[in-house]
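Lest this sound abstract, we think one record worth quoting, the chain in one-letter code, the fold tokenised, each line plainly labelled:

>
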Amino acid sequence: MLHGRDAEVSVIDQLLADCRTGRSGSLLITGEPGIGKTALLEHAATADGLRIVRSTGIESEAHLPFAGLHLLLRPALDRIDALPAPQARALRGAFGLTPAEPGDRMLVGLAVLSLLAEFADGGPVLCLVDDAQWLDRASSEALLFAARRLDAEGIALIIAAREGFAAPGLDQLPLTGIDAPAAAELLAEHASLSPTDRYRVLAEARGNPLALLELPAALAANKPSSGGSLPLPATVQAAFLDQVRQLPEASQHVLLVSAAEDTGDRGVVLRAAAALGCRPADLVPAETAGLIRVDNHTVRFRHPLVRSAVYQAAPVSLRLVVHTALADALDQPDDADRRAWHHAVVATGPDEQVAAELERTAQRAATRSGYAAASAAYERAAQLTPPGADHARRLVLAAEAAAEEGDVERMAELATTDDQALAVRAIRVRATSAFHRGSLRTARQLLIEAAALTDDLPLTAHLLLDAVHAAWYLGEHEIADAADRLAALPLPPEDPLTHVARLLTWAVRSAIGQPEPDALADRIAAARRTGFGDTILVGATSLQATGQDAQAHQVAHELLAQCRDQGWIGRTPPVLVCLARASTFRSRHTDAWNEATQALQIAQELGHRQWIGDTSGVLAYLAAVTGDEQRCHAFADDALTAPEPGSPAPGASWAHWALALLDLGNARWDSALARLTALHTGPVRHQLPGLRSIPDLIEAAARLGRAADVHEPLAQLTSWASHAEQPWIDAHVHRCRALLAPDEDAAELYLAALRCHPDDRPFERARTALLYGEWLRRARRKSEARAQLRDAYETFRRLDAAPWAERARTELDASGEAVPSPGGGALAVLTPQERKIIRLAARGLSNRDIAAQLFLSPRTVGYHLYKAFPKLGVTARTELADL
């Protein structure tokens, strides 16, 4: 019976009941040692109708990548062939089942989700993970990545961890001590004490169930003085140690070996213990005392605190003997990583042999995407290396592994070296850390510094391309300086880097009002001819900056496909943001929303504030299109949060544009003009929203009779149109001129704009039709006005641009055509997740393909299709395209 845990048991029982009906869920139970986390997991394990997989984190295994995850998933590994090939490769490599390939650590998380979903085909599954605070980081990240995406697979995941374990996105169940009546009842059930001892135990336990069970035995063995109470963990550990000290010395030694051994492998424990003069029979007293459980293969401690107490209480010299014995006992090739770490514990000074072992361990961990483990191994190897070239090299390798992990603080801390040959690599790591943190001035300065230190021309080009990227989010002076340095490099004529650099420098100089004389089309053609090499993202963003949205969309889509094929989930946020911007510009607002929300979720998981801010700005704009004031302001606030004091926030330009568009849609002309004026006179006016929001600026100014204020922005837009040679920009120029023109010229300008608008930008075309329709109505040409306004209204309604549809509907009413309030379209009855899935299914994608795109399991995709079909009145996927 679990005393005092009725509320917690109810939460768990509901999670398990949902699991049996096919709904998935996850729960994190947190609390201090002994508070009852394990007991709640055991309660869950007694539930009927569920298949159970479980794992336990072990403190000494924290440096072995995917050790905890492998233990959890062993029962499901026979389903690994059913996974998509990149996921199967990643999981096999992570578990050492095949030679590992360099890959994305987050791909393993997606493979975990898919594997659990496949395993759940045979019935609902309960996953139990205890002591998660001691899981290796690779296991923890993969497990949490999967947990946040559980939906309709029939999987319940319950994780228990000590306070401080971070698991954003999971429901939390924090445990405190049980109340006084429950504590008294539990104590009375397990011990018969005098009133004085009973009071002492209740006072010192403070509702901790483990203490209530263990302290009576300690009191019986050694009655303490009547002084003040001890801190709880020390008290409980002391209770365990009293039991340990009553064992024969040989049994105590076997217990210490078991505490230092990280897998619970009985054979390894006994081989190592034999070196200390112990025999298998020496396990018996410890097992009889209930401190350990022994079976044919494993030795497990009754509670993690027993292991901790045994290990920490042992003299350091004895621990070193034990680790040496364990290293000798681990004599198989597969044991190399564990053996290296035991040797590392023993080493007290420089030891090249152990350092080399650890370096090989780090290399193996990195190929399995266990970058946290690799970083730790490289760092310990450096500590065992005397000052010199190898010491510096290993520290830089540790920093680079931390960079792959995305640990922005750790990578900067490790990337320090006086070795000139390694300085560029170290500085580049620190710059990457600064960029991810949003410290853009620091990142730019470090990259320029690194570029000045190397004679390697391609490396210099890459460093300066990154410097231009960092400077793009700063002011015009910083970006001009970085672009000048890049343009000055003597790059080979047919190197892809050359043409990417030339295209990027044209884009940034044009953006800051310093256009170069040669034709933009020539630079684009050269870049497309040679390809973008490994700078394809720079190529896509450069195309976007020059107005080549269709090409930018194509290039970004190709890169996203490459990321998915290779499993580079952690690299996808900037690609998805680039794609979301392209989709936004081309009025594919639903696609853009899906792409941006995926980017934001992954950026949040990585803790990359730069991409959190950038993506939030795009989402604020998309919320503005729909008229969602609350979401628009919330995302804009996130985008306007500057990680670095004194620098613009990464998403500032998009946030200002979004808030201005929200004002325009709701006819708040003064506020819109004020926001757009601030954007166009501020430090980020060179960014994409600067040029692209000029039509909005001119519309707001024209509404307020301030046409004289916007002649310079119109000239800037006209110049851009002449260089970019894009019909959609010409359409904007005609529309802006129509807003500012006298009545006798306006009609022809509006018609010219409508002729230039391409079909793939319906939102902007509808805005032109709305403005023309308003002008026609004021000119009392109501029949012509109704045709334009009706076209605009239908387009806005289809795009879910509510405030714009309402403006068009109001104008139609004024022109004499009554229009009912919009109903939201066929897909309005669906949830946002269902809409995403239905749109992809309508393109002919399979459940597996949809799952890969949305980072879901195929079972979840099937569940949402099953729920959506009746709402839409369809019975087959082939009917979806018509919707």
